[in-house]
Amino acid sequence: MKLKWILYGVLGMVVLFYVYSGSDSANGESYENEEIVTPTQGLITTVQQVSDSTYKIEDEQTVPTPEESRIIAKHLDNTVDTLTLEEAKLSSIGTEGDYQGSNRYIYRAVSYGLMGYMLGRSMSRPPMSGAYMDQRTYDRVNNNAGQNLRNTANRQTVRRPSTGKSGYGSSKSSRSFGG
Prior knowledge:
By secondary structure, the protein is of the alpha/beta class. It is built from 5 helices and 8 strands, in the order αββββββααααββ. The chain has a domain at 42-152. It has helices at 2-21, 85-92, 103-111, 115-118, 135-152, and strands at 23-24, 29-38, 42-51, 54-63, 70-74, 80-84, 154-161, 175-176. The strands form 2 sheets. Strands 1, 2, 7 and 8 form a 4-stranded mixed sheet that branches.
């Protein structure tokens, strides 16, 4: 009688192993779940030029939709440029993949902040504090606009074939696609 329960227990563990490992016994492929996080709000990011080749994020505020996203660049010569998200994507990349003019420095700065989520960086990776004017600016923006973006983002779990890799570079990570 006891042996029967032990066999049932072992059989149950084997079944659970196959269910939770993601194996598809029909074709021998393994699958894994991946969470895709997409921002539903947009951002207005203001950057200030602090040297010839460096811009720092001065502020980031949420706006109702990603299409309303803007980058406001304040230059050393006291001029101000405003770029839509699409203009920033198009004007920052040259024909050979090189960034164009001061836009490459602007693009670099905003891609390390919350605007990076709009440009396609994974929302599982936090913004870099060094991209902001100072730690206080980083904390304020991350606690306000950052929290709003994370709380209102769409989350979708998809099942993808496993690559068989683990660790850095594996497909077992959250992805985010900007708008």
